[in-house]
Structure formats: structure tokens, C-alpha cells
Amino acid sequence: DAGVTQSPTHLIKTRGQHVTLRCSPISGHKSVSWYQQVLGQGPQFIFQYYEKEERGRGNFPDRFSARQFPNYSSELNVNALLLGDSALYLCASSLGGIAGELFFGEGSRLTVL
Amino acid sequence: TQLLEQSPQFLSIQEGENLTVYCNSSSVFSSLQWYRQEPGEGPVLLVTVVTGGEVKKLKRLTFQFGDARKDSSLHITAAQPGDTGLYLCADHNDYKLSFGAGTTVTVRA
User: Fold this and answer.
1) How far apart are CA A75 and CA B49, in angstroms?
2) How far apart are CA A101 and CA B42, in angstroms?
3) DSSP string, B15-70
4) Cβ-based contacts of B99 with chain A (< 8 Å)
5) Of B62, B75, B72, whose CA–CA distance to B17 is shortest?
6) Average of per-residue pLDDT values in chain A
7) CB-nearest partner of A98 from B43, B95, B97
8) Is residue A44 a contact partner of residue A34, using CB atoms and an 8 Å limit?
């Protein structure tokens, strides 16, 4: 069975641009979470979606938004990119229960110039 | 806001040696998890511990959870190059994980 898949794997943007990152969860998983991992740090929680509803949001500005589709895949959008948005963006899926195990994808590496 | 501190930040050892990494929290863990992240990949769950004083073993890895549920250690016996990676501790609270900055472990052949 396929694990969590993310696209694109690498991308380069310039300041002020917009980016969309995509995630497909493990089959049967209804919850998707997004994390930002800056070089040298642990992942930081951005969003969690369950059954297309936002369950939680981390301490990120409104430039960050996300949504979950009926097939449980998800998109993370970031507007008005800043240099500090350069990071590895990780998607994780879970069955959806509270404290359920999270399975991470390989991430999308975003570089903002 | 919970703060997770991991030490040391970097650790480089020879194959066959033992190592221990530490994780300390400013508040009680809801559910402590340890992950390993290899370059170019996402974190992979190694273990979940919930009960204070709990010890779990996974082959050559031993995980200890402090009695007060605010600290933990990960001990690797006879390390192998395949143990190389970033070791992250995290508090799993309801719907989210709060991670420490991690310990980068390099095992030289």
C-alpha cells in the first residue's frame, strides 16, 4: 500500500509569490495534518483537518491556509511568501481518532529567494 | 506554551558504541513519542510512552520515561550506521504533535 504522498518534492519561489502544496493520505485515513520544519528545528504544527473540517491550527499567520477535499487529500497554500517560509513542509495522515498514530510523507522542500 | 529541550544537539560515535539522548519538557507530557527522521524523509514513529516510570525496549533501543512524566531518554546499544538520523521527541496532545529540536546522531562505520 502507498504511504503518504506529497507534491512537489522540491520547489523554488521568490518573495511575494504564492505556493500550493499537495498531500494524498494513506488509503482509509480521514485526517491530514501539516507541519513546517525549518532547518535545524523540529516540525511545527500548522493545521489539522478531519472530514474536511479544520480541527486545529498552530501559531501561523493568515497567509497560511489549507483545505481538505472529499477524497481526503489536502492542499496547503501560502501567500505573499517570505524568506523565512523556506522550509520542509510535512504532511501526515491518521485514521482520525484522537491521539491516533501519524504517518508522515517525505515532505515538500520550499526555497524562497 | 510547552518547551521541549533535547540534548545533545549533535552526537557522533563509532559503530559498536552506545549512546543516550535526552528529552526534557517544561510541563507534563500528555503522551510522549520518539521519532527518527532520516535525510530526505519524514519522521517515523519509534515508540509511544504514557505511564511515568515506563521502560520500553525495541531491539537495541531502550526508552525510559521519567516518574514525573517530564523527561525521557533514548539509549541505543551497539549503534550501527543504520541508526544515523535525527531523533525527535514529541508530545502528542489530542490532535497535534509538539516536537523538540532533535538530536542529530551520526554513527561512523
Assistant:
1) 32
2) 14
3) TT--EEEEEEESS--SSEEEEEE-TTS--EEEEEE-STT-EEEETTEEEEE-TTSS
4) 42-44
5) B75
6) 94
7) B95
8) no
Per-residue pLDDT band at A98 (split at 50, 70, 90): low
From the list A45, A90, A107, the residue facing B96 with the nearest CB is A45
Res B108: pLDDT: 97
Three cell numbers written together for A44 = 511545527
Contact B26, B3 (CB under 8 A): yes
* Residue B5 in this model has a pLDDT that exceeds 80: yes
Check whether A14 has a pLDDT greater than 80.
Answer: yes
Q: Cell 508522515, residue? A: A104
How confident is the model at residue A2, as a pLDDT? 81
Q: Which of A9, A91, A102, A109 to mutate to test the interface with B (most CBs of B within 10 A)?
A: A102
Q: Calculate how close chain A gets to B46, using CA atoms only, in Å.
A: 11
β-strand pairing of B61-65 with B71-76: antiparallel
Q: Closest Cα to residue B99, out of B45, B41, B33?
A: B33
Question: Which of A44, A101, A106 has the CB atom closest to B42's CB atom?
Answer: A106
Is residue B107 within 8 Å of residue B84, measured between CB atoms?
A: yes
**For chains A and B, what is the number of CB pairs under 8 angstroms?**
54
A30 touches chain B (CB under 8 A): no
- Is B83 a residue whose pLDDT tops 80? yes
